[in-house]
Structures are given as structure tokens and as C-alpha cells.
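Example 3.2
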Amino acid sequence: MLTTVALILAAAILALLAVGMGYVLGWANRRFYVEVDPKVEAVLGALPGANCGGCGFVGCAAYAEAVAKGDTDVNQCAPGGKSCAEKLAELMGVELEESFPYRAVLHCSADWDQRLQRMQYEGEQTCESANLVAGVQGCTYGCLGVGDCERACDYDAIRMVNGLATIDKEKCVGWGACARACPRNIITMVPFKAERMLVVACANQDAAADVRAVCTVGCLGCRACLRVAPDLISIEGALPVINYDNYDPTDEMIEKVLEKCPRKRFVFVGKPSEEDLAAVAEEELPESVQADFKTTVDDTKWRG
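Structure, written as C-alpha cells:
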């Protein structure tokens, strides 16, 4: 009898607690409810949900809120691409301005065989760790080749080939994880105004004699490129930099730059367009022009 009474009393107490907690939760829901702008939800629904941070915001939700408020452009989502930008422009009732897809390029062209001073790195297999070890390679600007950028890319757009990062432009969506992962800051995001873009395939800021001592392909800083194309090329430190605001893939100055560079460190990256292929249908392009995605910058600037 006592056991039955105890069970009934316990059940009643639990029921009262449940009702009380339900009331408290209901009150809290009403008291602390934050109304979500339907436009924010619509924008968020149009985004791919990668939360990559490539747009400059913490995640897709933060970017969606900024778009809905009109605080940022609708074309900042690299994984979403053009179709996503078009959806956002439609939702916001704005005209989508012309923009160019950003793609990663590596400002280094020396693979394992082209490095004159090198050693087999046996430590923790990350570029971040290798970068702390003196003497891993003579060039302190070049690709370490341990693959931090490859592991950071969720789109399978980077492969290590003979100790050098090779970027597949067709797979690259331009979200920048590889650039953020590189401890030497030699991967940068370049706006592709054409299927192929001219880039500088070196990051070494040392004098010519020091470059020759560590690499067979490094830029010597001779400034021959500057003399033939002063509107397209400028010099920062010892290296040429391409002014992409003045870049025209059809400009005849590009050919002069290619011809004048003694070490052929200006290369094209990307896939040739039909027009490009037609223009050289009967020619054999120089080997350096077909080099695999190689080219320096710091964290805040992109350069050629």
C-alpha cells in the first residue's frame, strides 16, 4: 500500500515538474526570441554552406546577414561561384556587376631537382614545422613541398609533384585555404580575367648571385621585363610584379616580356581558351609557357 502511494506521489511530482519546466521554457522562448529576417534566411539558403571563410566572414550565416543588410557584395562566395552570385543578386534586387573568379597560384617554380641546396626533411611532415628548420633548402622563399596546402584544400585542387605544389585551375574554386595554410605566403589568389593568366614564377628577393647559388630557375632581378613593359610590370624589392589592373591577355607586350626574361620566369597558368589555341595552332609553344601553375606575395597583397 505504501509502495503504491509512493509511486503515485512520485509520478505526480514528475508531472508537476514537467508542466512547470514546460511553462518556463515557453516563457523563455517568448522572452528571448530573436526574430530572424526572412531575407537573411533566404540568402543563407542560397549559399552552399561551406563555411570556408573565403568571403571574409566567419561563416555562411555571418555572410548572409551582411548581404541582407547590404553591407557586402553578393559575389564574395567562391565555392558558390557565379550561379550563387546570381541567386543572391536576384534575392537582393541588385544588378550583378562583372567580376572575375579568383584562383590560387604558387609563386615558386623550383621542384626538387631544380633546388641546388636541399636536404631530405625527416621531421614532422608539415610545411609549418619544416619552415622552422634551418637548411631544409637553400632558398628561404621557395615551396617546402610537404603538402600543407594540399591537405587544406577540400576541392582536391592541389597535388605535390616532385616536391612542388601543382594547382589544378579547373578544380580550384578560389576559397583561399591553401594560401592561408602556406607558412611562406607564396600562394596568392589572382583574378582570372582570362582562361590563362600571366604570373611570375619566383618569390626570391635575394641578389642574383645568391639566387644562382640555390636555384636553377629563380628570378635574377635583371629588370629586362620592366624596360619592355613599364605599364604592365613594376618592381617590388628585387622581383617583378604584374599590374593586373592593366592586364590584357591580348597585349603584344606580354610576348615581349616572355622573350626578354632570361630565366623564363613569366609563365601562363590556367587552361588555354579556344582563341588561344587557334592563335598558336601551327606553333610549338615554349616549354616555360606550359609550366604547371607556378608564380610572390604576402598576406595582404596579390602580385604577378
